[in-house]
């Protein structure tokens, strides 16, 4: 039995280890994205959430060159710039006075955008997202089988951040011992990554007995047809109406209609919510700004609220700097374990007995 577990662990690691290693590395880098974007003008400005400031920001975004954006994501407590999203991957960062400080025409123009796309979609859209989710599921099996294999050799345990030497035995020992130390965190990272992507598994856990859209159905837009987007809306009045519905909520995002008949969506984050951009939703008519409907995530079933905690746990969005360091270190460990697993499997594999016998056989003298 242990032999088959060992074969399964080594072969799957040799095949998929590089994908997991790259996902771990990009995740570790993205955990501190706001830190390495601090060079942008206005990135360090204090967040403003007063209604007048928010209304001024969106008025400036609507009047910016290039036309109204598809959405505007407002600044956070640790990143003082708003992000404007436009079609086909284009967008911009704007400070809280509305001044554009950086623009891009596609995701390839910004490192943080293509890193995010790789980490979530492997550059292949929904198909890549599914592959990444399956890789995370396989990673869960690595953690479990690795812990089982470690138990036999637990008396030889030695904690090292890097291998003692770059030989196969030293790398395998390092892989086994460092892996078991980080096993709980690796398990958490893989589990949250899997559950965010593989919806059938997620629905079975968080919304048992419901169909595949059981977790998204409560957030669907109301079946109300909106009119054409007005040239000038009273955003302050709209934000005030949203705050009346949810006092103390942080206004995080405004999304404009993508197609005729759509509504304006305002996304809020209530104090108990872990999601950085919240999941409390309010819809307005685009022709006059009249409030249409809202969704209070705090009044939804426990399973939905638990599901919303997956991303903050996975991305280090809670717990301050300490949890960011934990998530980043877990990603770096995964990158190390995955890359070394691939290297030792494909380039440092031990010679088979048949090959050793052939190489040790004396050469036959030519007649």
Question: Level of helix content?
Answer: 40-55%
Total number of β-strand segments? 8
Task: Compute the CA-based radius of gyration.
Answer: 25 Å
Oligomer: single chain
Q: In total, how many domains does the architecture comprise? A: 2
Give the neighbour order of strands across the main sheet. 4-3-2-1-5-6-7-8
Q: Biggest β-sheet, characterized?
A: 8 strands, antiparallel
Shape: elongated
Q: What structural category characterises the helix and strand content? A: alpha+beta
Measured between the Cα atoms of the first and last residue, the distance is 50 Å
Taking all residues together, what is the mean pLDDT?
89
Description of the molecule:
The protein has 367 residues and is of the alpha+beta class. It folds into two domains: 2-35 and 114-207 and 324-347; 48-94 and 222-300, no CATH class. Helix content is 49%, strand content 10%. The chain has 13 helices and eight strands. The protein has helices spanning 2-30, 33-36, 51-63, 111-121, 125-152, 168-181, 183-197, 199-206, 235-245, 302-307, 310-315, 320-347, 353-360, and strands at residues 71-73, 82-85, 91-94, 100-104, 250-255, 264-269, 280-284, 291-295. Strands 4-3-2-1-5-6-7-8 form an eight-stranded antiparallel beta sheet, with helices on one face. Helix 1 (2-30) crosses helix 5 (125-152), helix 5 (125-152) packs across helix 6 (168-181) and helix 5 (125-152) packs antiparallel against helix 7 (183-197). It is elongated. Residues 352-359 and 363-367 have low confidence and may be disordered.
């Amino acid at each position: 039995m242990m032999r088959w577990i060992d074969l399964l662990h080594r072969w799957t690691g040799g095949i998929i280890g590089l994908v997991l290693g790259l996902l771990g590395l990009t995740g570790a880098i993205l955990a501190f994205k706001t830190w390495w974007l601090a060079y942008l003008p206005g990135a360090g400005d204090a967040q403003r959430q007063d209604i007048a400031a928010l209304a001024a920001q969106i008025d400036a975004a609507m009047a910016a060159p290039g036309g109204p954006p598809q959405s505007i994501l407002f600044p956070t407590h640790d990143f003082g710039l708003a992000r404007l999203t436009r079609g086909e991957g284009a967008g911009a960062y704007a400070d809280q006075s509305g001044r554009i400080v950086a623009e891009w025409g596609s995701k390839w123009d910004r490192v943080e955008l293509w890193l995010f796309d790789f980490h979530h979609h492997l550059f292949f859209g929904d198909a890549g997202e599914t592959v990444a989710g399956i890789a995370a599921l396989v990673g869960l099996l690595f953690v479990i089988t690795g812990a089982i294999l470690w138990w036999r050799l637990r008396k030889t345990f030695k904690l090292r951040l890097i291998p003692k030497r770059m030989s196969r035995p030293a790398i395998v020992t390092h892989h086994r011992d460092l892996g078991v130390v980080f096993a709980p965190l690796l398990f958490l990272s893989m589990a949250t990554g899997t559950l965010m992507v593989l919806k059938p598994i997620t629905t079975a856990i968080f919304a048992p007995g419901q169909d595949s859209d059981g977790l998204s159905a409560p957030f669907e837009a109301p079946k109300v047809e909106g009119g054409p987007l007005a040239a000038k809306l009273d955003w302050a009045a709209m934000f005030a109406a949203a705050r009346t519905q949810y006092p103390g909520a942080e206004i995080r995002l405004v999304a404009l209609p993508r197609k005729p008949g759509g509504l304006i969506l305002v996304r809020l984050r209530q104090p108990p919510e872990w999601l950085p951009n919240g999941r409390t939703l309010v819809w307005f008519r685009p022709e006059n700004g009249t409030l249409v409907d809202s969704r209070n995530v705090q009044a939804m079933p426990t399973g939905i609220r638990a599901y919303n905690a997956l991303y903050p746990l996975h991305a280090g969005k809670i717990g301050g700097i300490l949890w960011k360091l934990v998530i980043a270190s877990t990603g770096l460990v995964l990158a190390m374990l995955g890359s070394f697993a691939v290297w030792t499997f494909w380039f440092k594999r031990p010679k088979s007995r048949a090959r050793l016998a052939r190489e040790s056989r004396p050469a036959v003298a030519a007649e």
